[in-house]
Known about the structure:
This protein is an alpha+beta fold. The protein is 49% helix and 11% strand.
Amino acid sequence: MVSLTGVARRNGYDRSVESDIRPLGNRLAGETSPYLLQHAHNPVDWYPWGEEALAKARAEDKPIFLSIGYAACHWCHVMERESFENESTAAALNASFVPIKVDREERPDLDSIYMDAVQHMTGQGGWPMSVFLTPDGKPFYGGTYFPDVPRHGLPSFRQVIDGVSAAWRERRTEIEQVGAALASSITEQSRAAGGAALGEGMLESSLLGVERGFDERNGGWGRAPKFPQPMTIEFLLRHHLMTGDQRSLAIGRRSLDAMAAGGIYDHLGGGFARYATDAIWLVPHFEKMLYDNAQLARVYVHAWQVTGDARYREVAEETLAFMERELLTADGGFASSLDADTGGVEGATYVWDASEIESVLGDEAARFNRAYGVTSGGNWEGHSILSRVADVDYALLSGARQRLHEVRQQRPQPARDDKVLTAWNGLAIAAFADAAAAFGDPRLSVVAERAADLILNVLRDADGRLRRSWKDGRALHAGTLEDYSHFADGLLALYEATFDERRLEAARGLTDQMLSHFTDPAGGFYDTADDHEALIARPKGLQDNAIPSGGAMAALVFLRMSALTGEGEYRSSAEAALAQVAGPAQRYPTSFAQWLNATAFAIGDTIEVALIGDVSSPDLQALLDVVRQAYRPLAVVAAGASTGTAVPLLVDRPMRDGRATAYVCRNFACRAPVVEPQDLAVQLASAR
């Protein structure tokens, strides 16, 4: 095991004993973000983003140094140790710039705008993001990580700030022209669209693009580093169900199997790391993000529904258990992430030495080590990352895994970013809700309901508008499109798991807010509301990234809401958004996978299922069991009484002979109502 002797354990933002005793030197101490609090003791005179900092830049006519990162970012920590904790570097930065620190997870709008700028300037992006701005916020120079001394072909950060400071003094006119041109380019990019006709041919051509980039040997897409692609796998499952094509299912399964066997998956505690640093899924970047685990748990639930493969259900349940055990906060929301480092050592909590395993498992150690690839020399920096490498019955090793996990829990643990983000919690709510319905486990829906109630109670204002972040009793930052769309999607999933009409009503309220405040009259949705803080551009990100783009998720929510309510305006808005990305989605399908999932719903045979009766009655549950025995991504389901309901799909549909009754409609044409489960099964099979 990596030694942690003498290394102070971080508790979310305390960096070291030294940082604890250093007087507070900047304005980040009043923030709630663990990432910002990690920098509260730096000698850099950091400001949070806001009018105070921007006014200072204008008043003193100083350029801004904008640093954007997040709490679980390994290289953010490295740059802090090397540069932001260096007294002389901090003094130079403070003298010539107004330094602003931003948590990208709190402000995805700022992150989107300035990441576009860095990519324009350098051809690549990432975190930590380092951007220099004119006093009015226009970017003119940027990059990502800069070392403390020249290395990796990069100048030192001190060289960068000295060079930028000199350029600002000597070539200001040129710099301002660069900033203006970049700001204009970002604005134009947000307006760009690649319209094309929607149709089944679009899905087929997109599948060809997915196949071209697929790594047949190792699963997944691309080379090292290799990221999970849950949205792409969701598209493959949908394509298979819509067409019966076995190619799409095989590609999806190969990727699911490889990830579940690799070191990117935590074989003791469940859950997935952010990505693999290699092409074979063995060596993870050890940070664990809520959004990855929520999306992956959900896609493994769906894969189990499609295939019946018990391993997929096991991975889903273990991942949900990890989220509940490690990320659930005391007030019922989900924390954002676990750090990659423990005490400044990457992966220290997770890796093993063969001798350690032998001391815990005794005679069982040899069999365990063969199964999980543990050797005396290790497979990563002298230690072993667990992965499934043998053809054995892994169920026989469950007791060994449990004992090792108990020992691991006694080690120092990575820091947790405790802020509750609306969008990411929406993804988690959807995962728990879908699992509750698929597995018939109402306890999982209780977890989802508690998280939903927290957001509705503390992150929704009296006027129905959302906030983005909750921590330490404070709700901060205006909600962005992804907050509305991802939370609405979670609420729709929760409604279909519980049939609590309050969930559907709340989702519809958010849908109406998106319609009113985020719609682009030219088609699609902006990432920020019409009354959001004025920035140098109003972002309209189209590509999916680690989470679905707000626009793609909004389109899917609008389509589902239209099917549940019969409201045509929702569908029209969704189709206008889909038309904008139809062209690029076919050319770059893995970058637009959530758009493809929404397109599949738009062009597929939408099925509306209304179950009329007492939701808790055995006869209605028998009908519901039929609906839930398969994955039905093109279906919407409502259940309850047909009178006194706020669900349009249920209205004026009486029970037959006093028994729970199912109504199935497909593409606006309805079948005869049925009361027998086997008759409902026949209707659903023919309405595939």
